[in-house]
Design goal:
Length: 271
């Protein structure tokens, strides 16, 4: 019995050792070996050689997320962050996951820090989007993913749209992408108190219109505040892909009522 237990313990120990991946880092010695040899030793042998190598206790993927979040929170957006973003991609972090991670961090660390991090992340994950078609080219312009076809609401749209849920907690919001000419039908966000919606232009060119008013052009950075109980529509311009963030404003007894499509002639007259 003791022999069996011993074999079992040895087997577990062996598996744990095999699960570890030794991280070899030489940047410290290459860049600071002569000027600061002790720092180079701590960087290469301790930080990476020991701490990062304990990946049987915390995976390289998770260590990358922790490190990136820490650097962004401190406002460090130099080559250090770029290195760890590249490492995160090598460790299995996807484009969608890094976008969600930076978005989540923005609420705790600050919006400008997130913008700076996104600029670096876009360059690291740019090659993940292949192809020369218009959709792929448009996605390369954005810091947020296009997402999947917006099948659940397709009956309320003219043309094809795509939905990427960015955050489902605290302040839920999504990135909505419209192909050229796509727009949603007239609709109203009802609420007994509060409610409504806020749109933030992300990329491309689009339109927003309230019933009885002139259409308003939406460009990147433009914010549209939509009160509750106001009939309206929004979507892409006829000659441009378009994406906006859609923030659902909390309210009491909220609901959305859908109406007729936007008239083709009126839409085609927008310039």
């Amino acid at each position: 019995m003791k022999k069996a237990v011993l074999i079992f313990v040895i087997t577990i120990f062996t598996q744990n050792i095999m699960a570890q991946k030794k991280i070899v880092q030489t940047a410290g010695r290459e860049q600071l070996g002569e000027f600061a040899p002790e720092f180079a030793h701590l960087n290469d042998d301790i930080l990476f050689g020991e701490v990062w190598s304990r990946n049987d206790l915390l995976s390289l993927r998770d260590r990358s997320l922790v490190t990136i979040t820490s650097l962004i929170s401190q406002g460090i957006t130099d080559n250090s962050l770029l290195f760890h973003l590249q490492s995160a991609k090598n460790n299995g972090i996807t484009r969608t996951e890094i976008a969600e991670t930076i978005t989540h961090t923005a609420f705790y660390a600050g919006w400008p820090k997130a913008w700076a991090a996104f600029n670096l992340a876009k360059s690291v994950w740019a090659e993940d989007i292949k192809g020369d078609n218009a959709k792929a080219a448009f996605e390369r312009e954005m810091i947020f993913p296009i997402g999947e076809p917006n099948a659940a609401y397709a009956r309320y749209f003219t043309g094809n749209s795509y939905l990427a849920r960015i955050s489902g907690t605290q302040i839920p919001f999504a990135n909505v992408t419209f192909e050229p000419g796509c727009r949603n039908h007239w609709h109203i966000h009802h609420a007994d108190n509060g409610g409504g919606q806020m749109l933030v232009g992300v990329a491309g060119k689009g339109w927003y219109q309230e019933e009885g008013k002139e259409a308003v052009k939406i460009l990147p950075g433009i914010v549209i505040h939509i009160p509750s109980d106001v009939k309206h529509w929004h979507g892409a311009a006829a000659d441009s892909w378009f994406a906006h963030l859609a923030f659902e404003i909390p309210g009491e007894n909220t609901s959305t009522e859908w109406f007729e499509p936007v008239d083709d002639n009126e839409y085609d007259s927008l310039r």
